[in-house]
Specification:
This is Glycosyltransferase family 4 protein. By secondary structure, the chain is an alpha/beta fold. It has 14 helices and 13 strands. The C terminus is likely disordered. The chain folds into 2 domains: 164 residues, Rossmann fold; 166 residues, Glycogen Phosphorylase B (Rossmann fold), CATH 3.40.50.2000.
């Protein structure tokens, strides 16, 4: 049995978490010893669909006509669409109806967390919904103190100067305005934001905030994964102030690299990220400042080993076995090794 991962729209989403998830799926399947194909006519038993663009709908319909099983990934929700791009708040209800239609084309829907699973179930989806992490390459993203010096040289950090980083689209939903406020309150610390969004899609108030960013803020733009790994390994803290996520691949990458991490206290992290155990959580900018300051001056306990264990539980190999089990339940594979996959059938 072969799996075809549909790549339509990859040019548009390649620099986003969805693009990373597609890359991760290929690696998971490789490690689970499940063969992939570059065309669904080549004996593909299943087709992965990752976007909700019109071409993906056509691909899902074509796959069903060919008798292929459709595995639709629920990367997006109405909740994480809000506060994203220009007009997203007004379009959110229509977006929910659209993604409900798209995901409904799947024989099964996969989504990264129990939180996003519950949201999608609330949309009235008929296919079964499974929660399986997008995973993280814990071989590539791993602690490496030697990368600290190259990180500091690359971004011109002075001797003794501390650095706080964040990663994501330059949008309000990712917490960019609060990140800039935090930087303004900590002028002796360098703040670097990794990620890029087409300025045409960014609301005017966010563009204005970026233009008026404090002098200690650097917008690094979109970088390759090697440069991003260097930043995780070289910076002093990772502050992820996003207001809504379906999982947050960058959080897993940061934890895998062993950088002290502070995340916003939002529902998606409930049950697997625990405040004071494997990360620190904050619910407003003042709390972020308190947590980040504690990490920088060493007054807060080091949780990086526990954070690394969270990432290892979601390694490519572990998630590949969970995909294998889903295929077995869908009768794509004749047999599969047992794995801890949670199945949640949605009532019509």
């Amino acid at each position: 049995m072969r799996v075809f991962i549909y790549g339509g729209g990859l040019r548009l989403v390649g620099k986003s978490g969805v693009g990373q998830a597609i890359f991760h799926q290929r690696e998971m399947l490789r490690r689970a010893r499940i063969e992939t194909t570059h065309h669904w006519l080549q004996k593909a038993g299943a087709v992965h669909i990752n976007t909700v663009l019109p071409d993906s709908v056509l691909a899902a319909l074509a796959a069903k006509l060919l008798g292929r099983k459709v595995v639709y990934y629920g990367h997006s929700t109405m909740e994480d669409f809000r506060g994203s791009f220009r007009g997203s708040d007004k379009l959110a209800p229509l977006f929910r109806r659209w993604i409900t239609f798209c995901y409904g084309l799947g024989d099964v829907v996969l989504t990264p967390t129990d939180y996003s699973r519950r949201l999608l179930e609330g949309y009235g989806l008929k296919p079964p919904v499974y929660s399986i992490s997008n995973g993280v390459d814990t071989d590539f993203f791993a602690p490496d103190p030697s990368r600290r010096a190259s990180f500091r040289r690359r971004w011109g950090l002075q001797e003794g100067e501390r650095a706080v980083i964040s990663v994501g689209h330059t949008i309000a939903r990712k917490g960019l305005p609060e990140f800039l406020d935090l930087a303004a309150q900590m002028p002796d610390v360098r703040f670097l934001w990794f990620g890029w969004t087409d300025p045409c899609l960014i609301p005017a108030e966010v563009r204005e905030a970026m233009e008026q960013a404090p002098e200690n803020v650097t917008f690094a733009g979109f970088v390759d994964r090697e440069t991003l790994r260097e930043a995780y390994c070289g910076a002093d803290a990772f502050a992820f102030m996003s207001h809504e996520e379906t999982e947050g691949i960058v959080v897993l990458e940061a934890l895998a690299c062993g950088i002290p991490t502070v995340v916003r206290d939002i529902p998606v992290y409930a049950g697997w990220l625990r405040d004071g155990k494997n990360v620190y959580k904050a619910d407003n900018t003042a709390a972020f400042r308190q947590r980040v300051t504690g990490l920088l001056d060493g007054t807060l306990p080091d949780l990086t080993e526990a954070g690394r264990r969270v990432a290892e539980e979601r390694s490519m190999a572990a998630m590949g076995e969970q995909l294998r089990e889903v295929y077995r339940r869908m009768e794509i594979l004749p047999e599969a090794q047992p794995a801890a996959v949670r199945q949640h059938h949605v009532r019509a």
